[in-house]
Amino acid sequence: MKLITGPLSMFGAKAQIAVAEKGIDCEIEFVPFSLQHRYSPLHPDVARLNPKKQVPLLFDGQVEIFDSTLIFDYLEHKHPEPALWPAGIAERAEARLLELKADELFFQDFKVLMSAAGKTATPEAQSAIESMHRYYEATDRALASREWLAGSYSYADIAFFCASWFASILGGAPSPDFRHLGAWRKRMIARPAVGQTMGEISAFLSRNGVPAPAV
Ligand SMILES: N[C@@H](CCC(=O)N[C@@H](CS)C(=O)NCC(=O)O)C(=O)O
Question: Which of 4, 11, 45 has most ligand 1 atoms within 8 Å of CB, for mutation?
């Protein structure tokens, strides 16, 4: 199996963590990426396979897929253990919804901060930060009575952890007042699969003079 990702890819980090959680023997290849030139020049497999020109991509024999959520599904079918979707139907549905919300809703505010490129005083960036704050607040409330976002540790935790970790680089860090959320982030980073992936990304950031988020 081969995972093609970027050294600073939030969606790629999701896939990297999942592969590591499942203990899969998987080659990880990083596409060219720099803060200045972003994903240019485009990796040939990304250009060939993904009309959206995005990472991550997963290759396994004749299987060639893109999109982190599709990659989660493929990994789950190919390597069911340890399970990363909760077993209960309702909990699984909740986990899938939270994974989608991290990628599609929280990410909308994330994109605003990405475009702001550090200029967070603008009304657009402030509104995105407030919207993230509301998301963090609701998540903190939910985590007051549970260890993981939806039943057992799942892809929902991986997706939202990656989104909130990368948001922290862009000025969208959760307030330390959200102590249940803070404790969950600490539980997340203590997992070897998460700690190692984020450690590699932190090293890339520090090589580029950007402080990595404290968890
Ligand atoms: N929905 C996709 C999103 C992938 C995505 O946005 N990847 C970013 C890196 S985190 C990318 O390749 N961006 C390059 C670009 O859009 O030019 C997924 O879940 O994999």
Answer: 11
| Closest C-alpha to 150, from 81, 87, 94 | 94
Kindly give the distance from the C-alpha atom of residue 157 to the centroid of ligand 1, in angstroms, as a whole number: 19
Q: pTM of the entire structure?
A: 0.97
Question: Of all atoms in ligand 1, which is nearest to the CA of residue 71?
Answer: 20
- Quote the CA–CA distance of 8 and 56 in Å, as a whole number: 11
What's the gap in Å between 145 CA and the centre of ligand 1? 33
Q: What is the pLDDT along the chain (215 residues), one digit of tens a residue?
A: 999 999 999 999 999 999 999 999 999 999 999 999 999 999 999 999 999 999 999 999 999 999 999 999 999 999 999 999 999 999 999 999 999 999 999 999 999 999 998 888 999 999 999 999 999 999 999 999 999 999 899 999 999 999 999 999 999 999 999 999 999 999 999 999 999 999 999 999 999 999 999 88
Which residue ranges form the domains of the chain, and what is each CATH number? Answer: 2-78 (3.40.30.10), 89-207 (1.20.1050.10)
Q: Which two tokens stand for residue 119?
A: 């200029």
Q: Is the peptide bond between 82 and the residue preceding it cis, with omega within 30 degrees of 0?
A: yes
